[in-house]
Amino acid sequence: MSNSSTDMPSNNIPQHVAVIMDGNGRWAKLQGKTRVSGHKAGVETVRSTVTTARKLGIKALTVFAFSSENWRRPEKEVSVLMDLFMFVLTREVKRLHKHGIRFQVIGDLSRFSTKLQKNIHAAQQLTINNEGMVLSVAANYGGRWDITEAARKLAEKVANDELAASDITEESLNEHTSLANLPELDLLIRTGGDFRISNFLLWQAAYAEFYFTDTLWPDFNEQQFLQAIDVFDQRERRFGQTGEQVTVKNDNL
Ligand code: IPE
Ligand code: IPE
Ligand code: MG
User: Fold this and answer.
1) CA gap 65, 138 in Å, rounded
2) Is the CB of 24 under 6 A from ligand 1?
3) C-alpha of 147 from chain center
4) Is the CB of residue 199 below 6 angstroms from any atom belonging to ligand 2?
5) 22 CB less than 6 Å from ligand 2?
6) Which residue, by CA, sits nearest to atom 2 of ligand 2?
């Protein structure tokens, strides 16, 4: 636990943190601005969150940028979001690389423009050997899509006689999901005041700790991130065991 909320927490740092970055539109509305300016402000929050995560020694940070359902938004907003994604990608990747961060996009990329797909691949290739932290950006991502893809890949292996159906296990399905090579998801943060998962990391969140805050994403600063980490530190993760079992185990560490 940290001494004060602005200090760096000293122990029990989550290895893998995911964030549902919600509230850009409402933030903009409150300021009398367009939704687009809310998304732009949100990009700055991604920047500071990446910096803090890196500083804390978090191994993996996964952020929800665009859901498979966000295509339902007005065409103009979708197109602005795509432009913004492209712009940020070109502007920020060198900086991420300089800081040793591995960058990847998870989600169904096939619906993006060829140019955007190319930029994503280039960014992933550039940073592929970095070992500092893994930043995964979920774009056109849906948790149901992720599990369905994994099932489809396993089915293909079965059809090709590479795998027996009876050998399908939680582990083998997990191996075919996004984020398979990262530490288990420890902490899932949602800003913007809603208490739902909106089809984010359904499979991966099985034993994640959830942290909800009313803060709108553009206002989510370092201090609030540290507050979430502090709350995580105070949680007792039992993974099905009793409180007594977990306490004994921790005392013996
Ligand atoms: C989250 O902010 C960003 C995206 C979904 C792209 P919203 O745009 O959902 O903001 P609200 O929820 O309308 O305030
Ligand atoms: C979730 O936010 C998706 C992202 C943050 C990218 P939404 O604003 O799309 O979620 P709902 O529609 O309120 O559930
Ligand atoms: Mg929203």
Assistant:
1) 6
2) yes
3) 16
4) no
5) yes
6) 22
Is residue 94 scored above 70 in pLDDT?
yes
Q: Which residue has the tokens 């099932």?
A: 151
Query: Mind listing the pLDDT tens digit for each residue in 168-189?
Result: 999 999 999 999 999 999 999 9
Given the residues 11, 12, 22, 233, the one annotated as active site: 22
pLDDT at residue number 2: 41
| DSSP string covering 131-157 | -SEEEEEEEEE-HHHHHHHHHHHHHHH
Element (H, E) at 80: helix 75-98
Predicted pLDDT at 177: 98
Counting atoms of ligand 1 from 1, which one is nearest the CA of 39? 3
Does the beta carbon of 23 lie inside 6 Å of ligand 1? yes
pLDDT score of 248: 81
Give kind and range of the element (H or E) at residue 9.
Answer: none
Q: How far apart, in whole angstroms, are the C-alpha atoms of residue 33 and residue 116? A: 27
Is residue 70 annotated as part of the catalytic site, yes or no?
yes
